[in-house]
Amino acid sequence: MSVLDCIQSKISKELNEKIKINIRDADVKCIQPNRAPTKHKSIRKMDETNRDASQCGRGVSQFMLDDLQLAAELGKTLLERNKELEIFLKEYKCKGDEQEREIVHLRKHINAMTEVNDSRLKVYEQLEVGIQDLERANQRLIIEKNSDKKQIKTF
After folding, report:
1. Does the keyword Coiled coil apply (predicted)?
2. Predicted confidence band of residue 25 (pLDDT cuts 50, 70, 90)
3. How many folded domains does the chain comprise?
């Protein structure tokens, strides 16, 4: 799940929670003690005075004001969340930049170590060639020594 998916999920949960709270508040206002649930006060008025356009208009405008207030609260919540996310984004960007610098440093270190290793390998190869030459020369000298000993014994 990406960071954006997490953010969208959290915002959706917050919005759903706010809507549930507002619906629950509206339901509580509609239920009167010791009576069966009734319609919301403004809806009841609209039903009772359907002919009276002014009361109907007031009920609708109250719903619009409630919706506007809800929208304002949601907007405020989204702005606050946006500020938090911007802070998180800056922190993660700083961490990413720091890690990028560390990666560059480690790559340079790896390259330097590779060069050192390559130069050591060349030295070891040259030493191996030198050792082989010395062993051949030593074998040749041993053979010469043995042949010289034989010549000395024959004299």
Report:
1. yes
2. low
3. 1
Sequence-distant (≥ 6) Cβ neighbours of residue 58 within 8 angstroms = 42
- What residue type is assigned to position 61 of the chain? S
Q: Are 45 and 59 in contact (CB under 8 A)?
A: yes
Token pair listed for 136: 């051949």
Mean pLDDT (the chain) is 78
3-state DSSP assignment of residue 34: coil
Of 81 and 50, the one with more pLDDT: 81
8 A C-beta contact, residue 38 and residue 44: yes
- Residue 38 to residue 41: CA distance in whole angstroms: 8
Range of the domain at 18: 3-154
Helices (H), the chain: 3-30, 41-48, 53-154
How far is 102 from 97, CA to CA, in rounded Å? 9
What is the per-residue pLDDT across 55-102, written as a single tens digit (0 to 9) for each? 445 556 777 888 888 888 899 999 999 999 999 999 999 999 999 999
Give the relative orientation of helices 53-154 and 3-30 as an angle to the nearest 10 degrees: 160
The pair of three-digit structure tokens given for residue 94, joined into one six-digit string:
């700083």
